[in-house]
Amino acid sequence: MFTATALGACAAGVPAWATQAPAEDPHLWLEEVQSPQALAWVAQRNKATLSELQADPLYTPLREQALELLTTQDRIPGVSRVGQDLYNLWTDEANPRGLWRRTTLEQFRQDKPQWEVVLDIDALGRAEGKSWVFHGASFAGPDNRRALLWLSPGGSDASVMREFDCVDKQFVKAGFELPEAKSQASWVDADTLLVGTDTGVGSLTDSGYPRTVRLWRRGTPLSEAPVVYEGQASDVSAGASVEERHGHAPRISFYRALDFYNSELCVWQGTVQELHALRPAQLKPLEIPSDVQVSLWGDWLLLRPRKDWKLPGQTLRSGSLASIGLKAFERGERRFTRLFEPSATRSLEALALTASCVLLQLNDMVASRVQEWRFGPKGPLRRREVKLPYPGSLSLQALHDPALAQDPLAEHYVVYYNDFLTPASLMLCRTGSDQRELLKRRAPQFDSSGMQVRQYLARSKDGTRVPYFVVSAKQMQRDGKNPCLLYGYGGFEASMLPGYSGVLGRGWLARGGVYVLANIRGGGEFGPAWHRAALRENRQRAYDDFIAVAEDLIQRRITSARHLGIQGGSNGGLLTGATFVQRPELFNAVLCQVPLLDMKRYHRLLAGASWMAEYGDPDQPEDWAYLQRYSPYHNVKKGKHYPRVFFTTSTKDDRVHPGHARKMVARMTEQGHEVLYYENTEGGHGGAADNDQRATLLALEYTYLWRQLGR
């Protein structure tokens, strides 16, 4: 355990500058991510946590079980189509960082496809002495021979970019390269890129993302590449994406992300020679409200307003989807076709686009359905409901490649399906038909035959009904003694949908635990309005919703405070932090992962400035007035009884600063509270860089939960 005495004992190793921090925050020195003093502090706490939890008899079997599930060959390879190939990054026990490989659709249909390894990430790391984590590739069409590879040292968001030849399977000598940064790049042609990266003073936004877009020609210094587009320092980012369509000149979307929910879009089309003469002042944004999400699809604009968009004679409702021809819109026409309008229980989650159809992935009382709109030359023709498994989670991925003259997969798409008790399956579908081909299906990873899923409604403080799922044994006794883990997020319009997890199933459910998923406000389960209800000054509603679910579980005698734990990561870490500080008597375990906790300084740390549209600006007195009421770091008190919290983070997390968790632990131990802390030295915002690290983290977490909540 950590105590105030133990914390004081290491103070002798703290530098003088650290002890001279401002009185209001004596722990600022822990924000120095890589300082020797901060890392020594981390090592001491890691050692204490590992010594305690790894000594528990549960730890080793939990870790072995987690590693087996994470590295088993019985997994569905996630694939992306590139020309005639399907690419995949495959990790297993022998290849923890992964084999980047490819196969064909015909091979993929087989039980045991033949894969061609394109790049061994582990071998590359060993040869170069780097802890590389693969972050994706961007291909240069139409032959897709060359690709830009993104490699992260240790799993951070920032990556190195290097040009790779996918035929020769080697990096291109004197090819395009960028040093470690949160960069963005798109191919214009085989010798030209549009690049946003750190090129010195003024090139990044306050959030640490690219502010400018440069046109970079092969063989020339990046510093001499002209700026063709730029945003403001206060933006989240600026960037560009290139759309290749056979028989058309490249179409480029230049965008400014003004904040997380507002953006500006400029559409430009022309030859590469004309692009070289382009300058920022020539680009004019589309006359669309900044809160409207825009998708370009062939000759059409697809528009999703976050707020009601009032136009002469019509209103496009918040959360709806409308279409209009791009050329007609640019001429000033505003005759939209409504493709979807939300209801009290239905919202639009995502889109997938084939050659002639728009596929709508809908949330229907927090389960997925799919609608299909077929378009003709003059616009939408007809809508139909697609028959797919229900209720559960569906994820759609269109296979169409518009760069091909004739695409045999123009109307095909793949669908992933799973729910709490049904392992994932992957199906190949075609528009206009409900017939589907089962490509892959995972075997069950735990015995769910005696389990059930139920959905309940809790009543929040203001009367709002908040849905939540309970996964338990069918014979669960309503005696208040069931170990119960409540998970939540409640932010950034992210929907928490049913999902299958072998690790959760075997590590928690099969051992007698109950799992609860809360669909609180701040998420996207019921569209933008559900998210907007917990924005900024209304953030407390998300915490009230979470508390209401906890109280409802206790009232139904599914569990009791002695056996109830909560879990959340990132914004969910803020959720669990705020909740245990406000209502500590409700919980006996708190798993607070890669969290935000200091809401006074969050906007000054790493990507924090990009989240001010979600939380507010602490430098504005009116915003700090409500932020300070729930900021966990500022509300934890000496002399108050809290459950023993387990905080986890990563030294390599360059999204949510590890200083949040570090400082909270320092403050709580200083106040005399017992906490656990583990900081992985790699892993980025995901907390782990490979499955070995992930298995260790999972075993620590489940060991903690069982110790706190009862076996």
From TrEMBL:
Q: Which is an annotated Pfam family here? A: Peptidase_S9
Which SUPFAM superfamilies does the entry mention?
alpha/beta-Hydrolases (SSF53474), Peptidase/esterase 'gauge' domain (SSF50993)
Q: Answer whether the UniProt record assigns the keyword Glycosyltransferase to this protein.
A: no
Limits of the Peptidase S9A N-terminal domain: 23-441
Known InterPro entries for this protein?
AB_hydrolase_fold (IPR029058), Pept_S9A_N (IPR023302), Peptidase_S9_cat (IPR001375), Peptidase_S9A (IPR002470), Prolyl_oligopep/macrocyclase (IPR051167)
- Which UniProt keyword terms apply here? Hydrolase, Protease, Serine protease
Q: Which residues form the Peptidase S9 prolyl oligopeptidase catalytic domain?
A: 509-710
Q: What is this protein called?
A: Prolyl oligopeptidase family protein
Source organism (scientific name): Roseateles rivi
